[in-house]
Amino acid sequence: MYRGKVKFFNAKSRFGFITEEITGADYYFYIKNTEINFTKEELVSFDLKDSKKGKEAFNVKKINS
Length: 65
Hints:
Layout: E1 2-10, E2 15-20, E3 26-30, E4 43-51, E5 54-62
Parallel strand pairs: 3-5
Antiparallel strand pairs: 1-2, 1-4, 2-3, 4-5
């Protein structure tokens, strides 16, 4: 499991990017659940998987601070 901050999230299209907290790498993510929204700089946890375009974040969850 990784941690990071939401860099960008498009609520209409349900996709965004997360910046991983240790490496600073950016990862694409897509959320099917229309009830979940993210804000810029929000802390999240996530897993990574291989996709056609490289690593992709999935299982993205908000971290309550």
